[in-house]
Design goal:
single chain, alpha+beta, six-stranded antiparallel sheet, 62% helix
Amino acid sequence: MGNVKFDRVRLTGFGPYRETTEFVFTDRLNVFVAPNESGKSTLVAGITALLFGLPQTTDPTVFGQARYLNWDHPLGFEGELVWRVDEDSYRLRRNFQNNQISLARLENGEYREIIGGTHNPRAQRRNRRYEEKLQELIGLNAQDLFEATFCLTQPLPEADELDSRVQELLSGTGVGFKEAADRLAEELRKFTRFTGRRGVTPRDAIEPRRLEQLAAEIETTRAVIDRDRAQVDQLEAVRKRLAEKENDRVKQEEKLAAQERILTLWGQWQHLKQQYEAARQVYTQVQKSREQARELEATLSRLEEEKAAYPWGPAVPAETAAILGELEATVQQKIRIKQGIAELEAESHGGLAADEGAAVTPTGPDWSALGPQPAAVVARRGEQAAEALTLWAEWEQLEAAAAENRRIRTAEYPLFEEADPDLVETLKGYESRRAYLRSELENATLKWENAKAELRRLERRRYLRLVMVLGAAAAGGWLAALWAGGRAGLPLWLS
């Protein structure tokens, strides 16, 4: 074993240390001086629990989890111890709740785990590697030896070992330790019913006390707060939706006002457009009237000029209009005669050209009937003739195959040629008709068997009825004979 020196210890949720608390040790003798119930003994117990484990117990008076687990529901229940052995630094982490450990050694500036797993001080299967490593590092692996060597604590006297007068002096109340403890327990019972789990009384009370009532009130108040918070959230959401709807309403009103303005302007524009169209039509008519007036004025001026140009001047004879009409008719007739002369000349020129062409027309086939490219037409007709010849050869092959088919059908299957059409139709449905007839035969057979069984049953009934009738008749005759014998004086007897 080398030189062992503890550097620091960190505890969370251990005893009074609900939050994470760290203690740093010096190189010399460390003395922790503090008031009573401030956690001095808890610090020593924490170091011991880190090295050797904290048993899972329910008795708060012994060394275990029930005694050192913080009551205020801490975030964790764990610790860490860092110490040095000669020049090597080691770090031990332990979770007191599930006894998980991690022993690491400082290498190259960071701690590397060398042993991990579970170390339960009361388990049947011990973590031998951890205990052997602890023996190697500090020279022992027992809790009592550690408390007797590394850390010396002051043993506290038990209550039953002190004189009552000494207890009175220590408590300063003038009463003994037991009486003071009873008073404190009674005071505690006024505040909470969970005195048993706190180790004050053997068991918990049934009725809730002030702390439980306050806890219930707190839960009720929290529920009311949550409900009110939900209502406030809903109210805020409704207020936001109302504000959004109000904004939408304002926007819609503005949009409606703009649409109304546009509609008003549209009506005004339509009215102005109608007025403009009416004015434009009036203006067009006025323009047309002005143009007609100008044309009439020009015609009148031209007529006046023509009339003034005549040698006779304004004094025109009465027959002038008739003479002018005859003159215009003569001009039109002259024009028609000229057109007729031109047509006759054109026809005479065409006849001469035809006569000249007929004198030099060559003999042979007229290839002009095939169009401007007779060679291409002849080639295309040759291709079409070849295709037609191929189709004709294929048709002849098909005709020969059809003739062979007719010959085979006539020679080998004459039934299909000579049979009646009804027979052919029957042969077509042979399989289905055979199945149908077979089904009908089975049904008829079943009915025949049922009829025979019924006939046998009726015959048995008729036979039984006949036997009964004959038996009754025989019995009746016998009784009649006995009756007649009795009347004749013969003895009657029955055996």
